[in-house]
Every structure is written in C-alpha cells, then in structure tokens.
Write a structure and sequence with these properties.
Radius of gyration: 19 Å
Bound molecules: (3S,4R)-3-hydroxy-2-oxopiperidin-4-yl beta-D-xylopyranoside
CATH topology: TIM Barrel
Enzyme class: hydrolase
Structural class: alpha/beta
Protein name: Beta-xylanase
Organism: Aurantimonas marianensis
CATH architecture: Alpha-Beta Barrel
Number of domains: 1
Shape: globular
CATH superfamily: Glycosidases
Order of helices and strands: EHHEHHEHHEHHEHEEHEHEH
Family: Belongs to the glycosyl hydrolase 10 (cellulase F) family.
GO biological process, one term: xylan catabolic process
Strand content: 5-15%
Length: about 325
Amino acid sequence: AEGHGASRSGTVPLGCAIQAEYLDVDPAYRNAAVEYFDLIMPMNELKFGQIRPTRDSWNFEPADRLVEFALSHGRSTRGTCHVWWNSTPEWVDRIETAREAEAALIEHIERVGDRYRGKLIGWDVVNEVIANNPLSEGPLRRTAWLKKLGPRHIPIAFEATARADPDARLVINDYDLEFAGPRYDARREVMLTIVRQLQDRNVAVTGVGIQGHLYADRTIDKDALERFHRTLDGLGVGLLVTELDVIDWESVPGAEPQDATAHRLVADLLDGVFAFQAPESVIVWGVSDRYSWVSDVLPRPDGHPSRPLPLDRDMSPKRWMTLL
Ligand code: XIL
C-alpha cells in the first residue's frame, strides 16, 4: 500500500476504522480513507450484534461491502469483534444454559470467521473483558458471556476464531491500558494475567490491542507502556494500537488548544508504544472529525465541537497526523 505508514519505523501500517453508512454518501470520506491509510477496517459492521441481531437473521452485507472496499484498494483489513459486552444481542442475553450459550458463540465465530477467511488479517477476538476498575470489581467485567460461561468464554472464543481461520492474528483488545495510576496499572496486570492463562491452556493469542482512546486530563505512562510491550514480547505476543482518538475534556475552547493537547497525548502514546520496538500497527478510530463516536458519546461539556481525529472536518490533516 502506498499510504503513509507510521513514521517511527516507516514500516508499521497505519490504519483507520470506517463506517458503512458514510461510505456511499461521502466521497471525501471514502477518498481520505484510501489516501491516508494502509489498513481500512469496519468499525462496527463485524460486531456480533450487527452481524446477527436476531437468532434468525445474519446481516453480512455492510461488512462485506467494507471488506471489499479495503481489498479492492489494495488495503489490508481486520475484524472487530466477536465478544463485546456492548454488542451482545438480546437473543443471546435470553439464553439460559451454558451449553446453549457456548454453542451459539462457537457457531457465530465459526460462521463469520469462515466467511472472511483469507480476507481479514485477523480479529479482535474479545473486546473489553477487563473490569472497568479491577481494584474494586475485578478482574473481569460482568458481561452476559461471563455470567453464562464464566471466564472460559475467552478461550472458547479464541479457539473458535483460530479454527475458522488458522492464519488470523488473534488479538485481545481493551481500553485504559495507556495511563498513569493504580487503576491503569491494575488493568495492565489483568491483561497480562489473561494472556498468560490463555497460554497456559495452549490457547493461541498473537496480540494485545490497546485501544488508545486518549483523554486530555490524563497522563500517558510511557515507562509502563515500554515495560508492558517488553513483557508481552517475552511471551511471544505483539502489541497494536487499535482505536486511537482524543477525547478532549479540557475547559480550553477553540481548535488550536485542542489540537495541541491531542498532539502531546499522541506523541506520548507513540513514545511509550515504540520505546521497546515498533508495534504491529497503529489504527485510528475513524477518519475525520466529521464522524466520530466521541461527539455522540463523550462530547465536550462546554459544547465546543470535538476534534478527536487526525483529519479535520474538511478532511485536511492536522499537525498530529505527521506523528503517525
Ligand atoms: C463504537 C463506535 O465508534 C460507534 O460507532 C458505535 O455506535 C459503538 O461502538 N470502544 C470500542 C469500540 O471498543 O468498539 C467503540 O466503538 C468505542 C469504544
């Protein structure tokens, strides 16, 4: 691909997540994805709840379209995600027995994995399985899958993904793994424990995804990231940044201070992530400020428009794009 590539090494693919609903209607968005990124992945269209909203319906069309878009432009693509508390459909919630839940999970992963075999470089197999605060709740988030199957839903999901697509990279993905403080230390520790437990059971995991949703009022722990990366490498596991964007809650209004903050945070993250060695990829959670979950879910309290992504609303790159 002739996209930019992360400049730290010149060899790390730079990715973006795109959404089917904007692809056909917004040529500038479509062109920017191809112009600036080496890897283009579906943001939502491969999530369990989107693919199989009811027991009787499989909805592959939007994901097919995005995967085809990436491949037809010579870009690589990847999937997210089979297990996520926020994309588990109602019909799964209503399953009563462990046996039926396990069968449903395996059937889903095998069917989806089979359909995209050879097209996706890999999967975020499970997403956000770590408790929000492991110091008070930990270690795992209380999800429908945990309640029905216990922690073994994690190895079940990894094994099914590998069966359906033996060449797929197998990633465990989570948020709040980047920052300084006891809660974040605890989250990194839980992540390492999960990886070690999978390996103890001979379950393959090839990578840990750190989402990289950065916050203006938090500090990146560069040293902890370097140690984390080194420890994972010692386990034979890679590191990826999977969902980079900046949630700007500073009370400073205006585009320039927001972009300066974003620049500092992204520079710190990349310093930490690249300190030991280059990651597998760096992926941005969107393309441009025109469309982002941050404006909907975590808007600025002062009402100023969010500027979470490396391309502006008019698709011009911000200064921090040059860091990537
Ligand atoms: C978000 C998408 O950006 C939204 O479009 C969608 O409505 C909900 O999901 N952490 C994750 C992502 O792991 O999957 C989430 O993506 C953002 C937070």
